Amino acid sequence: MEQRAQAKEKFDQYRRFLMLEPRGHRDMYGAILRPETELVKTGEADFGALFMHNDGFSTMCGHATIALGRFLVDCDDEQIFPRRKLLKYNAETQTTSIRLHVPCGVVDVSVPTLVIGKSDPSRPVSFISVPSFATGISVTVHLPEENRWPELGGRDSITADFCYGGAYYCVIGATELGFPQGLSEDDIQRLSHATALLKKTVNENPDLSSLTRHIQTSEQGVLYSVLIVDDAKRINDPSSSEKGLCFFANQQIDRSPTGGSVAARIGLAYTKGDLSIGEQRKFDSLFTGSNKGLKGFVGSAFEELKKESGVDGSQKNISVRVKVEGYANYMGYSTFVAEKADGLGVNGFLL
């Protein structure tokens, strides 16, 4: 978290240079490699990473973790990854383990590996999340008049769930948000408008601060994302894939099923009693769900963690570590430059 804060304060120009136009775009996402962190130095992690998006640096990203897993196994440059040769290879499962230190903690990544030592793209990469949990179930959020959207139909409140999977998510059904027709690319702008107002309401209301407070550390966070789920495909139906549309940061849209939200939603479902340890659920985004050649993510509750709190220890805080599986593929290699005569410099821009 200290390196994340330092990046925000002193090195944000590099994020803007890469993520924003003309080199990136509004929905660009990336990672800054950190070979040295405090946990790498103590031997508790193998490598570190900072995640970046159109509005800053996030605490967790599942799809970036999956992609980094493959890259780090394939990396033979000791200047980039000094500890590559120290990674543990399991000959029985043909996987390589990486302890990746990210702002929310250490995630354990398992990368399918070929005999030649390179990652195997035909099998999914998986990671075990940081403790994930519900922070609010069926919470009524009252919306001030200036934060209401037309599709509410005169309502002044909504009901949603809140959960954590390395970042804080609000999970709301499409119908509850005011879109009974479900998720559609045709409604992207209206969905973005509604979720932006909902997120603004939660983050500005001190009475709702408990929804973004860590149940184990009491550290206060902010609502990172509003995730809309299709009512017709919900997590309590094991035979189907839950389809979701994730708006995060500055209304950025996740093309993937959002690995952090998979961990959060599994933690939420476990708290609700909708699944048990080891049970799997499938997740799609608006994009993967409509393209049959693209596979979504699979999530399952890996292990339960309990921590007692309160003066008498009577409050039981239950969380789970979640196994998230997904695929990643290489697209190419790029070198970006900023000439002295370039009026944009390294700042970039968004329209």
How would you describe the overall organization of this protein?
By secondary structure, the chain is an alpha+beta fold. It folds into 2 domains: 127 residues, Diaminopimelate Epimerase, Chain A, domain 1 (Roll), CATH 3.10.310.10; 193 residues, Roll (Diaminopimelate Epimerase, Chain A, domain 1). Helix content is 20%, strand content 31%. The protein is built from 7 helices and 16 strands. The protein has a 16-stranded mixed sheet that branches. The chain is globular and about 60 Å long. It starts with a helix and ends in a 25-residue tail after the last strand. The mean pLDDT is 92.
Computed CA radius of gyration, to the nearest angstrom: 20 Å
Structural class, from helix and strand content?
A: alpha+beta
Mean of pLDDT: 92
Question: What is the tally of helical segments?
Answer: 7
**β-sheet strand percentage:** 25-35%
CATH architecture type of the largest domain: Roll
Principal-axis shape equals globular
CATH fold label of the largest domain: Diaminopimelate Epimerase, Chain A, domain 1
- The CATH homologous superfamily of the largest domain corresponds to Diaminopimelate Epimerase, Chain A, domain 1
Largest sheet data? 16 strands, mixed
Low-confidence stretches: none
The tally of domains stands at 2
**Helical content class:** 10-25%
N-to-C terminal Cα separation, in Å? 30 Å
* Total beta-strand segments: 16
Quickly name the level 1 CATH class of the largest domain: Alpha Beta
